[in-house]
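FORM 7B - TANDEM STRUCTURE REPORT

SECTION 1: FIRST PROTEIN
SEQUENCE AND TOKENS:
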Amino acid sequence: MPTLVLNNVQKSFGTNPVLQGIDLTVTGGQMICLIGASGSGKSTLLRCMNLLEPIDDGTITLDGVDISEPGYDPQPVRQRIGMVFQSYNLFPHMTALDNALLAPRRVHGTSRTELEPKVAELFARFGLADRMHHYPDQLSGGQQQRVAIVRALAMKPQIMLFDEITSALDPELVGEVLDVLRQLRTEGMTMVLATHEMGFARELADTVCFLDRGRILESGSPEQLFGTPEQERTRAFLSRVL
């Protein structure tokens, strides 16, 4: 099981500090939900975990190896740590299946013949067997987001990061995407989610972290954080969103 450890992670954009000393440990099989207002640093934190953004200070280690040091090759890390974004980022000229096959074929050099049955199985698992040969503009927003999750899982990652993946969806489509996350949860996938879905976080998270101005102001079990938050800022945020 993978272990991802962030120690005193700091990140600024110009003179704007976005992450200010983040300490976080993600262990195998955990689901960690990041909550907080827009601009609190949730998305940047996920992008730093995946090495899409270099950090300014601190360390990020994956199974004891410092992956944040300058010059470290990010590609093997991104194979182990998958990420799904708010926008689906599917190639419009390719079918759902071809979108999902592209990265593992290029990165792993696996033949289409070998790969297609395994990826088709992922489509079936998430209720998309009859949509594999459709193009993105023939799919609903919820279906496109599920295809994006299948595409990430096709790389066989050990950790999955999800960045507000339901926030661009119509309310009636949110449930079908959250059901995919529930299934991954039961299968033991290690996950870190930035989310506004408080009910989902309360139901399934092992740990909930409240971010405020680039810091993890408070973290704990869903029962503790939602039930008896210690920080005034946490209480104020939850009173607005619950």
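SECTION 2: SECOND PROTEIN
SEQUENCE AND TOKENS:
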Amino acid sequence: MTHPVTLRRAVAADARATADVWLRSFAAALPTVVRPRSDDEVRAYIRDVVVPLRETWVAEDAEAGIVGMMVLHGDQLSQLYLDPAWRGRGLGDRFVALAKERAPGGLALWAFQVNKPARRFYERHGFTAVEYTDGSGNEEREPDVRYVWRP
């Protein structure tokens, strides 16, 4: 029997599991991208900034716990990470639908140029690439692309 996965706002107690999803997802999806922060720094940032100060959503499975995360900040979809074992199950689709519901006037996001699966995913959801950079503006120094969605 499969249990439904619930999307809900993150609370302080979710911070560690949310950070662990971020770390697993980043490692799996972006193996060539150099992370400027240690695992502990990522955990502290998610605990001290992301969960308390941003509109942070988690996908929670009754047995597996937190298996995905999404962060909205105004019209910016700034983080969408799924546990690698949970990709391809429609959670990303549900997160994007929720983001569009929360920001009906439109959304913008950044993706690394090397992350072809993520770029195809966003394009499939109606996002359009509007700007490409050399990466000098992000802490990873990795070329990225800005996407926008307008209803």
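SECTION 3: OBSERVATIONS ON SECOND PROTEIN
The chain has four helices and seven strands.
The chain has a mean pLDDT of 93.

SECTION 4: SIGNATURE
Preparer initials: ____
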